[in-house]
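User: I need a structural model of HTH merR-type domain-containing protein from Bradyrhizobium elkanii for a docking pre-check later this week. Nothing fancy, just the predicted structure tokens so I can convert them on my end. Input:
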Amino acid sequence: MTLAQELSVGEVARRSGLAVSTLHFYESKGLIASRRTAATSAATCAACCGGSR
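Assistant: Understood. Predicted structure tokens for HTH merR-type domain-containing protein:
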């Protein structure tokens, strides 16, 4: 996997063992970055989850 790939928030939660709500909380605090796609309105997270806003 390259760093340019994106994962769904659910996939990040599954891989990390964190709850989706935890990831959304981290996003709200600016600790991780995500974007929502127009097609699905689903949050996606950079593979490293350390991107800046």
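Before docking, keep this in mind: The chain has a mean pLDDT of 76.
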